Amino acid sequence: MEKQVEEKIKDIKDSEAFLTRIIQTVREGLLVLYPDFIVLSAYNNFLKTFKVTHQDTIGRKLYELGNHQGYFY
Hints:
By secondary structure, this protein is mostly helical. It contains 3 helices and 2 strands.
């Protein structure tokens, strides 16, 4: 049973890595948000476009980004 769980976890991690690589190729800047608009993930083109880092973005509310300059709302 434990071996099966470990295999499923590996499969999920592999799938997540594969999907992340695909999403990183999208030209638009993408964010993944929780329902309350907290940033779960920010992809490279978003970071480049808005000149921010992961540390500046992950875990913050969407409306807090961009120094409240209205970019994201």
